[in-house]
Amino acid sequence: MASLPKALAKQGVEVIRMIPLYQDIDREKYRLKKCDVELHIPLGHAWFQGRVWMQEAYEGVTTYFIHCHEFFQRPGIYGTEDHGYADNFERFLFFQKAVVRLIDEWGMKPDLVHCNDWQAGLVPMLLHHGIDGHFRNGCEKTLMTVHNLAHQGWAPAEKFYMTNLPDSCYTMHTLEFFGEINTLKGGLVAATAINAVSPTYAEEIKTPEFGCRLNGVLYHRQSVLHGILNGIDYNRWNPETDPYIPANYSASDLSGKATCKESVQQDCGFKVDPRIPLLGIITRLVPQKGIDLLLGAFDQVLATGAQFVLLGTGDDRYEEAFRTLAERHPEQVHCCIEFSFEKAHCIEAGSDIFMMPSEFEPCGQNQLYSMRYGTIPLVHGVGGLEDSVVDYSQKGGTGFKFHGYRVEAYVECLERALRVYHDPGRWKTLMKRAMKQDFSVVHMAKDYIALYEKILKQ
Question: Where is the Glycosyl transferase family domain (predicted)?
């Protein structure tokens, strides 16, 4: 929602972006203007008032922010650090209905409405059936993008009345799922087309292992299921210009990377030694990210003599486990249990190896950042990690991959990577090759434009 619309606009696509106006969005900083329109939105028999704010032509894209005091005037986006808000279904149902109402209020004629994740999963149905029980018969084409199939927007069946959709929308073939509402399923069923954020993930989610119980739905709709690998904005992630790192560098002059590594070692309280491999990880501390695997292998990781730095927050049990490791092994382990944009850039630039042992990974972006920073990714070969990293054993290798979610496979891969690391000539060649890879959002935008055109011809 940040970089793709901007890239589309640069290629001549007229883009209008709609998102909720969360409390944390600084209206003055981003120069938002209140529009002269009120939206009256029904949730069942209750009506809620919405207001619209606009950010005009920022980076070529006009954005409309939907606000409702009852639903969005609160901290955070989906909830607090401990749990999601109990009324998230109502919050995003309001938002989706407001999007449809605004399209009609202003007479917009979009060729295609691109919906991201369960928070926009009901939009295709609402465009067709209307938001208040009056049939709309919208003819807009729709694309449903799945960023992580595990997040589906479940709600009790008793809340279906709030949608004001006809009863035909609550069946086993539509929204009903094991006796409850599954918002994402609604989008997968009703959208003109579906895409996942990498080609491999698009194939994986049709299987029981990765399908999160929706594999049957996706298998049924496989003729309109596509995979497009995420891209990254090199204006924000570029070691040659990055303002957050202590020294800039490039593939032709790597001297600044040594400075970045030394800075991270100093900040972590490690021995400053360019010969010691520095392993970095920036992640949410949740099971999906392979944290159990990493903790299970940690004694063997430490036995290699490598230094390890972690940045992230998540489940309490994982946070406590890493704090304990850092206390026991301060000469090798440093953990920052926080979110920090600046530290993320420094760790990307200063690490030698970036670890992503994810159990599953729809796309992932840190492996893409890492390659641009000459930090070699070590990944579990699933989803977008499989699509974006070429194993060192193959021609054009850019990183190290293991297959099979097992401690033994992960440790063997790390040991293989460290053998190459201790051969400076081979490692430098690998770094330069990784830094020259191009995963620009420009390529992603071209792929989406091709998909949009295909959808419009259907």
Answer: 278-419
Shared domain check, 358 and 262 = yes
Helix 441-457 to helix 3-10 angle, to the nearest 10 degrees? 70
Count how many domains the chain has.
2
The 10s digit of each residue's pLDDT in 193-232 is: 999 999 999 999 999 999 999 999 999 999 999 999 999 9
Specify whether 344 is located in the same domain as 384. Answer: yes
| pTM confidence score | 0.94
pLDDT digits (tens, 9 = 90+) for 114-131: 999 999 999 999 999 999
- Within-domain flag for 243: no
Do 422 and 449 lie in one domain? The reply is no
Cα 395 to Cα 390, 400, 425, 430, 433, distances in angstroms = 8, 12, 17, 11, 11
